[in-house]
From TrEMBL, chain A:
<protein>
    <submittedName>
        <fullName>Fe-S cluster assembly ATP-binding protein</fullName>
    </submittedName>
</protein>
<dbReference type="InterPro" id="IPR027417">
    <property type="entry name" value="P-loop_NTPase"/>
</dbReference>
<comment type="similarity">
    <text>Belongs to the ABC transporter superfamily. Ycf16 family.</text>
</comment>
<dbReference type="GO" id="GO:0005524">
    <property type="term" value="F:ATP binding"/>
</dbReference>
<dbReference type="InterPro" id="IPR010230">
    <property type="entry name" value="FeS-cluster_ATPase_SufC"/>
</dbReference>
<dbReference type="InterPro" id="IPR003439">
    <property type="entry name" value="ABC_transporter-like_ATP-bd"/>
</dbReference>
<keyword id="KW-0547">Nucleotide-binding</keyword>
<dbReference type="Pfam" id="PF00005">
    <property type="entry name" value="ABC_tran"/>
</dbReference>
<feature type="domain" description="ABC transporter">
    <location>
        <begin position="4"/>
        <end position="249"/>
    </location>
</feature>
From TrEMBL, chain B:
<dbReference type="InterPro" id="IPR011542">
    <property type="entry name" value="SUF_FeS_clus_asmbl_SufD"/>
</dbReference>
<dbReference type="Pfam" id="PF01458">
    <property type="entry name" value="SUFBD_core"/>
</dbReference>
<dbReference type="InterPro" id="IPR055346">
    <property type="entry name" value="Fe-S_cluster_assembly_SufBD"/>
</dbReference>
<dbReference type="GO" id="GO:0016226">
    <property type="term" value="P:iron-sulfur cluster assembly"/>
</dbReference>
<dbReference type="InterPro" id="IPR000825">
    <property type="entry name" value="SUF_FeS_clus_asmbl_SufBD_core"/>
</dbReference>
<dbReference type="InterPro" id="IPR037284">
    <property type="entry name" value="SUF_FeS_clus_asmbl_SufBD_sf"/>
</dbReference>
<feature type="domain" description="SUF system FeS cluster assembly SufBD core">
    <location>
        <begin position="127"/>
        <end position="355"/>
    </location>
</feature>
<protein>
    <submittedName>
        <fullName>Fe-S cluster assembly protein SufD</fullName>
    </submittedName>
</protein>
<comment type="similarity">
    <text>Belongs to the iron-sulfur cluster assembly SufBD family.</text>
</comment>
């Protein structure tokens, strides 16, 4: 059973002059079968948390620990983290010109699974996974994310989630920029992944609308670089009606109604 | 590459000394002064490493030219007096004029008219380390001919030449010139392409080996309807100098050109130069042209110079544009691929292969395409990228 454990995590980013502390002591444990929604205003450090866990070179861990099933994640390279079972669905997936989606998916699956998937099964698996997300099969031959719309990029992040089957998935504002149909399709993809009950999900979002499709077990409010309040599903409803003003002193709606 | 950190080239910061139209040309080597290195057309080239090709070095040997001709293609070895030679263009610098003044035998390859021929390969092997040689090749695509000529350069020594491509009316010629020289080789070559009415050329330069390689492809249009696609793919390692100077001379109406050169550089002292000149003369109404150069700098200590020049003497054109960007390896692409479990070295290879993919995909001779893919892999292995 997978467990991602984050303890007293402090993270800085090197800006133009001095390092700036963005995460100021994050504690969070995500166990298999659990979905944790991390909600917070813009600039609170939610995305930094996701990138720091994935190992983006821009962020420096100044103190604290992150472990996956007891293994020290912070000691691992970016690709080792992914192979250990961490997955980050990015808010802004990167374009890689000249590398076809099908080549990329197969290379990633080979790396994560430790062996190349048998071609015949693989083709079927990818086709099925693409159909589930309403992705046109023609995308397989296009360059990774190149010229994709925002919604197409997000569908492909969830396609990778489904194919790579990580132990813990971090979804960084996967709902942002999606229309109603795309949000439904993407959410269904996340729910299929969760269905085994053996994986953990960290769902980072600014708005509550995705929580109508993906049921969180826990809701955490993130403000000023740390978790300031935790609760159950009902906390999202409070945020929906009251916004983040209580945590920031500023008026910023969790949902514009 | 949209995601590269790009350094856009300056517009108007450097005013060319003279219009490309006034560029001096001559068959006679003595009509050119020995370059000192400050001249506009020589300022990027390490003259000291040219083995005297620019300053009158006499031939000490000759390059071996072997032709593997497809059915229907004729191959001749002719003397310098053959009056078919020198028709596609006039040497535009002292080394080209030296080569023109110095070669003793020329190879003439003729593609049959109104027929499609299989690829013909011309293999040129240098005269050997420390040797100087001059050569001349003429490729004639007869009226309505359709075919491919691969020029394959190998071996050692210094070698200067002119290569002519006379593409008759309605002919379609594909050229792939692969510079796969040994480490010591010095190669300076001018390619002269002359396109007849409704003729087309797909001209690809690949530069991998050699100490100094300087290629100047010049395209001229003899009549309307000509179409030129120029591509270049180069990979410079530590200490290598690779220079490509395509020039498209639009002097006829309703012609088209497209230039795409892409290079990767790695290692200390790797230096690439791309000077892309396009001139649209007053008579060339309805011209459509675009040129692009991209450089991917993989390590510190490498330098890419890129200068696109576009001169337009008529407003009555379809379109004209240029772009140039030199960027470092994109860490965001690397992060994205690694975040999906792909190890760093493999991720780097994917990105570099992807960078060249659009050019490699267009090479429709499978053996050449496979050879290039393998060569790029080998380059990347070499630095342990």
């Amino acid at each position: 059973m997978a467990t991602l454990e984050i303890k007293d995590l402090h993270v800085s980013v090197v800006s133009e002059d001095a390092p700036k502390e963005i995460l100021k002591g994050v504690d969070l444990t995500i166990k298999a079968g659990e979905t944790h929604a991390i909600m917070g205003p813009n600039g609170s450090g939610k995305s930094t948390l996701s990138y720091a866990i994935a190992g983006h070179p821009k962020y420096t861990i100044t103190s604290g620990t992150v472990t996956l099933d007891g293994e020290d994640v912070l000691e691992m390279s970016v690709d080792e983290r992914a192979r250990a079972g961490l997955f980050l669905a990015m808010q802004y997936p990167v374009e890689v010109p000249g590398v076809s989606m099908s080549n990329f998916l197969r290379t990633a699956a080979t790396a994560v699974r430790g062996e190349a998937p048998a071609l015949r099964h693989w083709v079927k698996e990818v086709k099925g996974a693409m159909a589930d997300l309403d992705i046109d099969p023609a995308f397989a031959e296009r360059s990774v994310n190149e010229g994709f719309s925002g919604g197409e990029k997000k569908r492909h992040e969830i396609l990778q989630l489904g194919l790579l089957q990580p132990k813990v998935a971090i979804l960084d504002e996967t709902d942002s920029g999606l229309d109603v149909d795309a949000l439904r399709v993407v959410s269904e993809g996340v729910n299929r992944y969760k269905a085994s009950g053996e994986v953990g999900v960290m769902l980072i979002t600014h708005y509550t609308r995705i929580l109508k499709y993906i049921q969180p077990d826990f809701v955490h409010v993130f403000a000023n670089g740390r978790i300031v309040e935790s609760g159950g599903r009902e906390l999202a409803d409070v945020l929906e009606s009251e916004g983040y003003v209580k945590y920031t002193g500023k008026t910023e709606a969790a949902a514009i109604s | 590459m949209a995601a590269l950190s790009t350094q856009p080239h300056s517009h108007g910061a450097v005013v060319p000394v003279a219009s490309r139209a006034e560029h001096f040309t001559s068959y006679d080597v003595d009509a050119f002064e020995v370059p000192g290195g400050r001249e506009e057309i020589w300022r990027f080239t390490p003259l000291k490493r040219l083995a005297g090709l620019h300053s009158g070095a006499a031939a000490t040997g000759s390059a071996a030219v072997e032709v593997n001709a497809a059915a229907g293609v004729t191959v001749e070895t002719v003397g310098r007096e053959d009056d078919r030679l020198g028709k596609a263009g006039v040497p535009g610098d002292r080394v080209a004029a030296q080569a023109y003044s110095s070669f003793s035998q020329a190879t003439v390859v003729t593609l049959p008219g109104d027929a499609k021929s299989e690829p013909t390969t011309v293999t040129v092997t240098g005269a050997g380390e420390g040797q100087v040689a001059y050569g001349h090749v003429l490729v004639k695509a007869s009226q309505f001919a359709e075919g491919t000529v691969v020029l394959d350069y190998r071996g050692s020594g210094a070698y200067a030449e002119n290569v002519e491509f006379v593409v008759a009316d309605g002919a379609h010629l594909q050229v792939i010139a692969i510079h796969d020289w040994a480490d010591d080789a010095v190669h300076v070559s001018q390619h002269h392409v002359k396109l007849g009415r409704d003729a087309s050329v797909k001209h690809t330069v690949v530069t991998l080996g050699g100490d100094v390689v300087r290629i100047t492809p010049v395209v001229q249009y003899a009549a309307r309807g000509g179409d030129a696609d120029l591509a270049g793919l180069y990979f410079a390692d530590a200490g290598q100098h690779q220079e490509h100077r395509p020039f498209i001379d639009h002097s006829q109406p309703n012609c088209r050109s497209n230039v795409v050169y892409k290079g990767a550089l790695q290692g200390d002292g790797a230096h690439t130069v791309w000077i892309g000149d396009v001139l649209i003369r007053a008579a060339a109404e309805g011209t459509e042209t675009y040129e692009l150069n991209r450089n991917l700098v993989l390590t510190d200590g490498a330098r890419a110079d890129s200068v696109p020049n576009l001169e337009i003497e008529t407003g009555e054109i379809e379109g004209a544009g240029h772009a140039s960007a030199t960027g470092r390896f994109d860490d965001e692409q690397l992060f994205y691929l690694q975040a999906r479990g792909i190890p760093e070295d493999q991720a780097r290879r994917l990105v570099v292969r992807g960078f060249f993919q659009e050019l490699i995909a267009k090479i429709n001779v499978p053996e050449v395409r496979e050879r290039l893919e393998a060569a790029i892999e080998a380059e990347l292995e070499a630095v342990g990228a």
